[in-house]
Every structure is written in C-alpha cells, then in structure tokens.
Amino acid sequence: DENPKEAPATTPYNLSQYFKQFLFPQNECELHNFRLSFSQLKWDRWIIAPHRYSPQYCKGDCPRVVGHRYGSAVHTMVQNIIYEKLDSSVPKPSCVPAEYSPLSVLTIEPDGSIVYKEYEDMIATKCTCR
Amino acid sequence: PHSRGRVASEETSGLLVAPEDTSSELNPLWWLPKGVRRGYALLPPLLKVLSERGPQHWDSEVPRLQPDSRALRYMKRLYKMSATKEGIPKANKSHLYNTVRLFTPCSECKHRHGDLGKGDIHSVDLLFNLDRVTALEHLLKSVLLYSFDTSVPISSSITCMCHLSIKEHDFSSPVCPSVSHSVAFSLHFQVRKRKWVEIDVTSFLQPLIATNRRDIHMAVNVTCLMGEPQRNTDLESPINMALVPPSLLLYLNDTSEQAYHRWNSLRHRRKGPGRPRQRPAPLLDPTGDKENSQGTRASRRRR
Q1: Which residues in chain B have their CB less than 8 angstroms from residue A111's CB?
Q2: N or C: which end of chain A has fewer CB within 10 A?
C-alpha cells in the first residue's frame, strides 16, 4: 500500500485469485491424497480386501504463529520460539497427522485360514503442526 | 490397555523390529521377556510386513496354503457387510468383534471320512488348528459353518439332528481318543439361495479356547430330514445332501493396541461433558445377529 495507484492491472477473475493468496497461505500444512493398490506391493496374493488403500499423508509448512486452525498445543508455539530465538538446532514444528481412521483388512494366513481384522490408525484424516 | 500417548507408541513401535536379529542386545526385542517376543512373532502379517526393513522383505515368498473357495466367498461377503468400499469398518454399533477368523479342518482328517456324501447320516471327524489365534484375541462367538449342495427347493424346511463331541488325546491311548464332552441338538432352517447353515457352538468351545487349547478335535454327526417338527408333520424321507465338512468361524475381540477399538472411538465422538457413558448391553450378540434375529424371528413368525 505504498503505491496504491500501482495496484496490478488484472481482470476481476485474477483479482480474486490475487487476494486469495493472502487469505489462504500457499504450501501450508495440509492433508494430501495418496492411494495405493496392494498389487503394486505384490501383497494382493494374501491381502484379499480392500484392493485399494488410501493412507493419505500430511505435508506443508507450519506457520510461525500456529493458531486455532491446527488445534496445536501452546507447546508448538514455544518450540517455534526456541527455534527462532534460542537454539536453531531444535527443529521447527512439523506437519503431522492429528487424526486417523481405521481400516478393515481380509487376509490369508500362512496356514490357509482367513482372517478379517480391523486395524486402528491406518488412514490419516486430519493434519496438525507440532 | 490402549494408550494414545505418542511416547507410548514410540515404545511400542520399538517392538516392530524384525525378529531375526533378536540374538543381539542391540535389538530392543532382546530385552523383552520371551513371551512378549513370541507375541511379536504372532503379530498380524500385515504389521509384520510393514515392520520389516527394506522392500526386499515386502514380497517375501512365505508359502501359503490356499483356502477353500467357499470359505473365501463367505469371508468376502462378511467383509462387504462389515466395511465400506474404502475399507473403513462400518459404524454400526451392533457388532463387537474386530477380528473374525475362519478355519477349515486340517486336510489329513478329511481323508478319514471315506464315503462322505452318501445317505443321510454325515459323520465327520474334524481337527482344527487354532495356532493363529493370539493371546490378546478373546473369543466372543464360535460357529460351525456348513455349506451344502442340495436339490431341495429353496424355502423348503429342513430339520437336522446334530451330535457334537469333543475328542481328547490322552497319552495313555494316543490311538483311540476319548470323548470329553458332547452335546446333541436339533436345527431347523429354511433353504435359502445362499446355502450356508451356521451352528452356534460358543458355549461348547468356550472352555477349550479360554484355556488356550489350539488343537480342537471334534466329531460331528448330522442327520437332515425334510419338514418342520413343530407342525407335527411327519418328517419326510432323509435328504440326500452333500455336506462339506464345516469350517469353524471365530468372532474375536482383539485387545492389542494395533486393533481398532470401536467403543473407544465411539466414546471419543460422543465425548461431551455430562453425557452419560454408554456401555454395550452385555447380552448384545457380538455379531449383531440377535437384533436381526429378533427381527427375523418376528418376520418368520409372521410368515
């Protein structure tokens, strides 16, 4: 806003894109889709179901002041301050999964028996910084 | 036993190391009591493979016996009923199990059956090996699962008399096993498109499985006739039914940390101050059938 006259000469559509980058910071911590099939891992001989598995993953920068958006604990901000002010060998907070959902798997055991089992924490559903 | 603390999970994840090198103190497993190390050996294959180092482990050629195609079909159907298309356990609160195991009788015993499939009396000698059931998998329900082929038209009534007995091998006479306890009961059902009959043997097997018996030897006599005993109709001539030796289905609750604990997550979702904690009704059928069977029974009565 030093030179308001020099605002970029853009079409209205680009303008909304232009302003959006301030509302939604780019490359910040968020959940990313990732889908694999057990045949890629050559496990489909003994994993009968599901055929596909979407574990997802978290990736992105953690903002300096991690606020309510990530539900991060206060400790996350303290760690940020330690990194910036006291000891930069202490890592910045990382973008990690915060919540998961389970996965049901049907497999053939080595003895030929068949097992249906529900596993905890197999699909990331939400990310946080900490 | 289920702690969500990250630190705890770091410790447990330290458990997830290939057992091969437990000989050196460097492997944290070495410090564990032998029983716990054995527990690792019985980790579900999925987690063992996930824990093994390096891709060359991932396509380990562990020889696997191929299951019976009928059994596989049954378990695929159970999977569809219990999980969504994405593979997430369905949120219906009625089933308590988080593990279901299906065992087919060991092949050696089958040879002893000889003329199975002729006439109406089926006597089979079954030996199930339950080594895959871990100490943390607690039995909720056990079912003998019959699949039968018959020319009997669908929706006709069949009554079967079953005699079940458990055989004990004691050292004094290894050749002739003695019968420890037996039970006789009748089963009445209507022939449906999917020709499965489930015989609930929970109370019969519970004492054995609770004492960590892993080899279950039983003899099953089944006689099936057409008709319904309640209606005093003369039970008609025996049915020529080809009965395949039944599989054994165990509904289990795995209390290990890796298993999904439905009640924990439901409680989380319902977490709110002041909301009374809800416990599953103890009489709730672990497979959720009773609710259905109530409904089914009512509709059957109506029919």
Answers
A1: 65, 129, 131-132
A2: N
